Each structure stands twice: as structure tokens, then as C-alpha cells.
Amino acid sequence: MIPEIEALASKTIERIAAAENPEALETVRVEVLGRKGSLADFGKLMGKLSAEDRVSAGKALNSAKTSLEAAYEIKKTAFESAALNERLQNEWLDLTIPPTGILPGSLHPLTQIQNEIESLFFSLGFAILDGPEVETEFYNFDALNIPPDHPARDMQDTFWLEGGHLLRTHTSPVQIRGMQRLGPPLRMIAPGRVFRNEEVDPSHEHTFYQLEGMMVDRDVSVANLLYFMKTLLSGIFKRDVTVRLRPGFFPFVEPGFELDIQCMVCGGSGCPVCKHSGWVELLPCGLTHPNVLRAGGIDPDQYGGFAFGLGLTRLVMMRYLIDDIRWLQSGDLRFLKQF
Q1: How far apart are alpha carbons 20 and 330 in whole angstroms?
Q2: What region, left, alpha or beta, does residue 51 occupy, with left being phi > 0 and alpha being psi -120 to 50 degrees?
Q3: Which fold has domain 109-336?
């Protein structure tokens, strides 16, 4: 048996030396040194030998196992060292190079414009209010003089939730809450996110941003409304812009107006943003309807007011000449880094 053990050991050492990778080396170990390997088979035959032969065969078996395990460990260590050296070469880092420091970030363009508008109106004595995005039907529709059969209540426009709640379709509910909480005289704006069940295209999104404004006091007129609208536009665009004021119907104002701005993406020639009309609806506005004042707990015989709703997202598109509203919520860093 001793010659067979020595022959196995000699052949196995050659196989270990010839192994080209850790997988091949592991195969040799399992076949020879494993619990069911060749050396284990020799151990099972020891009981058939005489006492004298068993002693000499046992020594030869132990010697072979020791030499093979040593050869295996040497080869395994060589593979591990080679792998480590390769990793260090590929992942090498020069710790003497100065760090890049904190990379500067930037505010989203929507946030930038919102901050500018808030600062402008705050300087004019307006409070900045906020309200819940999940609203009740009363605050979103009823209190704003929107009748039950109005198209805006249709499922095509509103995301309805359980229990009569909904995702607010405009920030106008904050006007009602502001009147109820603060009372007259009142100057307020309410920027925020709104939701409408609309088909997405270059100028429409299901989630976008608006900014409502309201002033309630004695002897408020259309002249007050126009003054603040012109102040707003000149403050935002930093230059003269072409606008038009046309009659418009909104349940919460009487009389109502549509203030449009000439499309600043195409210069009025027509593009997908303005639906090829050359104009973009920007500021629905008007004098606050008496029913809205009553819903806010204010006597319309004593006080009047004006209100406007600014498409904050569309204003950003005009300011930065963005031709697709979907960029604003895309999360694309290549787009956002431009601001």
C-alpha cells in the first residue's frame, strides 16, 4: 500500500502545481484530501492490514497528507496574493490627492421661482399660507361656489379618494381657510402642489404647482387687481412682457378675467407649449364672489376682494424657456444641473 500512497502523493503535488486557478485547485483538494477523497479510501483499507504493516502504512498516509496539505496551502496563498495584487492595482487610490470637497447643489427651478414670488408678495404685505393636499369636497368645491354639476367635479379632472376626500385640484381651498382663520383685512398667497386627472403632454401634467393670491378689504376694485398682477409679472420676468386681459368665467370670482402672456418659448409664433396659439393662460383672476366671502366667514356687504390663480409650473416654463412640462418632474440631473 505504501508505494500506492507515495505515487498518489507525487501525482497530486504535480496537479497542485499545475492548477491554473483557485477552482482547479479546489477540485484537486476535494478529490484527494476530501472526506470522500483518495486518501480517505486508503484509510478505510487500514483495517485489513497486519499490525506491523498498519503502523508503516499509517505513517506513510499521514506523511502524504501533511505534504499535500502544505502544498495546497502554498498554492492557495499564491492565488490569494495574486488576486489581491490585481485588485490593488485596479482599485488603487492615491490618498495624497486633495479631496474634491462638497459638491455644490442647487434649488429646483420651481423652488427658485416660488421663493422669488414669496419674497415679492411678502414685501407687499402678503402672508404666505399653506394647506392640506388631501382636501374635502367642501373646501375644494362647495366653498368656492362651484356647483355640484360643474365639469370640474367629474372623474376626468379630479382624483377622488375614500370618504368624500380628494386630491386638491387647485390651491384655492387655502383662501377659504385663510379667511376663516385670519379674517379681514387679508392679504395672502398660497403656493403649493395640486393634482388633476389629465392626459400628460408637453403642456399638461397630472401633478403640478400653482400659487393662489387673495386680497380682502374695503373698497377693493379691478384696479387693485391689475396693479398687483403687473407688479408680479415685472418682478418675475425682469423685463416687459406682452399680456392680454380677456373676460373669463370662474365660479369663485365675479367679474372674472383671463390674463394671458405671450408665449416666451416661441415668441408668439406658435409651439406645443402654447398649443400653437402664441399665448399661454397664466393668471385667471377676478373680484371675489360674494358666496366665497360668505363661506370664509366674511360679510360681502362690508368687504370686497380679488383673487388670482397663478400657474407656477407654466410660469417657470416661460421664465426658463422650457418646452416640455414633463422635464420638471423627471428627476433628470442633466436637466436640473442647468439651474
Answers
A1: 50
A2: alpha
A3: BirA Bifunctional Protein; domain 2 (3.30.930)
Flag whether pLDDT at 159 surpasses 70: yes
pLDDT of residue 162: 87
Domain boundaries, the chain: 2-90, 109-336
The cell 421661482 sits on which residue?
113
Mean pLDDT of 314-336: 83
Picking from 205, 225, 334, 323, the residue whose alpha carbon sits closest to that of residue 283 is: 225
Q: Can you tell me the distance from the alpha carbon of 87 to that of 172, in angstroms, rounded to the nearest whole number?
A: 61
The answer to whether the CB of 284 falls within 8 A of the CB of 259 is: yes
Residue with cell string 477523497? 37
CA dihedral 318, 323, 327, 332 (to 10 degrees): -110
Cα three-residue angle 246-320-260, rounded to 5 degrees: 0
Containing 121, the helix (H) or strand (E) segment is helix 109-123
Query: Residues 309, 257: contact at Cβ < 8 Å?
Result: no
